[in-house]
Design goal:
The protein contains 7 helices and 9 strands; from the N terminus they run ααααβββββββαβααβ. It is α+β, with helices and mostly antiparallel strands. Among the domains are: 145 residues, PH-domain like, CATH 2.30.29.30; 52 residues, Membrane-bound Lytic Murein Transglycosylase D, Chain A (Roll). The strands form 3 sheets. A 4-stranded antiparallel β-sheet has the order 1-2-3-4. The protein has a 3-stranded antiparallel β-sheet with strand order 5-6-7, covered by helices on one side. A hairpin with a 4-residue loop joins β5 and β6. The longest helix is centred in the last third of the chain and has 29 residues. It is elongated and about 120 Å long. The N and C termini lie far apart (173 Å).
Length: 294
């Protein structure tokens, strides 16, 4: 049993300084040192900082990438537009053979020239052929361009044949094409225009084709005019007109009815702007029989 000693002093609370010392003595949680701090403590050199590229370097890299893309696109376009090796010779040989098979009885070739076409339906790829002027018509035979996505199947080449008889309405003239960067023959019809591209080696032959076509068309026109003159009906006789003096009480409408015409005709014959006429005015009227006048 505990005996209380009244002479003993009561227990005192520890001072605040001792509490602070106790709290500070407790171990604190310290974050692990960074890698850079570890390098620095170990004495190793820190890794160099990443340098930023200058604007000129970034611009040069961008231009190089764009140039590579444009070059690739140009190569693809050239592969699509430029014909394969030997396509021109093969197409021209096939076209000349087809021309011989297209000739009719008593039809002969007057002039010919190698030419080509570029159509938007073929993505402006070039098709080679020949333009021929015969004694009856103008003929173009050409081979279509090689397909882009699949090779042409073995067998006879499918040729394009265009025929323009000389009695049809068309003209064939040498002209510059592609804003002066090329030249060729331009065929114009009332419905469309067809351009035939001609290279320098075939330009003289193309001029002969144009001249032969123009001469044949003139000959056909003369023959048609001569035939029309022999079968044409005679022209009706010209109408006869006389002078008439306007009497009191007469009107332009009444005179037109009397001379079996219309007021419009009388106004045109006499250059009248209105239907007003005066007594004694001389008018030009159609001549009619006196017995038939009302």
């Amino acid at each position: 049993m505990a005996i209380h000693d009244p002479s003993a002093s009561p227990a005192k609370a520890p001072p605040m300084a001792e509490l602070d010392a106790t709290v500070s003595a407790e171990p604190a949680q310290v974050s692990p040192p960074s890698r850079r701090a570890g390098w620095l403590r170990s004495g190793a050199a820190a890794p160099p900082a990443r340098r930023q590229r200058s604007p000129w370097v970034r611009l040069l890299v961008a231009l190089t990438s764009s140039t590579a893309l444009l070059g690739t696109a140009a190569l693809v376009a050239a592969a699509a537009i430029v014909p394969p090796i030997g396509a021109r010779r093969t197409a021209r040989e096939a076209a000349q053979q087809e021309v011989l098979s297209q000739l009719g009885p008593d039809e002969r070739v007057v002039a010919r020239a190698f030419a080509s076409q570029r159509r938007w339906t073929d993505m402006w790829r070039e098709s080679f052929g020949v333009v021929v002027a015969t004694n009856r018509r103008l003929l173009y035979v050409g081979a279509p361009p090689t397909p882009l996505l699949r090779p042409r199947e073995d067998g006879p080449t499918e040729l394009l044949v265009e025929s323009y008889p000389f009695d049809a309405a068309f003209t064939l003239e040498p002209r510059t094409l592609f804003r002066g960067y090329g030249r060729g023959l331009v065929l114009r019809t009332p419905a469309a225009q067809v351009d035939f591209v001609v290279d320098d080696a075939s330009w003289t032959a193309a001029l002969r084709v144009s001249q032969a076509s123009a001469a044949a068309r003139r000959s056909v026109t003369r023959d048609e005019e001569a035939l029309s003159a022999t079968t044409r009906a005679p022209a009706p006789p010209a109408a006869l007109y006389v002078r008439y003096v306007v009497q009191r009480g007469e009107t332009l409408t009444g005179l037109a009815r009397r001379f079996r015409t219309s007021p419009d005709v009388l106004r045109q014959l006499n250059q009248l702007s209105t239907d007003e006429i005066k007594v004694g005015q001389r008018l030009r009227v159609p001549k009619v029989d006196v017995d038939t006048l009302p």
